[in-house]
Every structure is written in structure tokens, then in C-alpha cells.
Description:
- This protein has one domain (10-79).
- 23% of the residues lie in helices and 16% in strands.
- The chain is built from two helices and three strands; from the N terminus they run βαβαβ.
- It has helices spanning 17-27, 52-59, and strands spanning 10-14, 47-51, 77-79.
Amino acid sequence: xxxxxxxxxxxxxxxxxxxxxxxxxxxxxxxxxxxxxxxxxxxxxxxxxxxxxxxxxxxxxxxxxxxxxxxxxxxxxxxxxxx
Length: 83
């Protein structure tokens, strides 16, 4: 089975301690100026629901082979109707 995903698809992750730190560092960046009510500071164990491109923008530079995982169980849930 193949599943086609789109960068605009909504995904959900549960943040690890490392992931919460990455997100909060990004959130507190003084150059970040497009806050919305859906985005806010996070803590370990919080769920983050966002578009895939946003997840890639924030966490992509921190993900590499053998590195700390920003998401619990390294899982990304894609919200997609496959019917």
C-alpha cells in the first residue's frame, strides 16, 4: 500500500523533553513574529498539531541518525482520509 501525503496535511506528535525545548526555543525567538492562538509554548508530553511543513521547519534541523527524538516513540500521526 502506498499513502500519498502533502506538506499541507495536518499531523500530530507528542513532544519529548528534547522536542519541547526545540519548540520553545523556536517560539521564544525574537525574530518569530507570526504567532497565532493555535501555537503556544509547549512542555514535555504535550501534543502538537500542525501542518507537516511546520513540523519540518521547526524540527527538521534537529533530526538526524542516532540523535535525540523530538517526538515520543518517534511517531508522527498523519490526519488523512484514505477512503
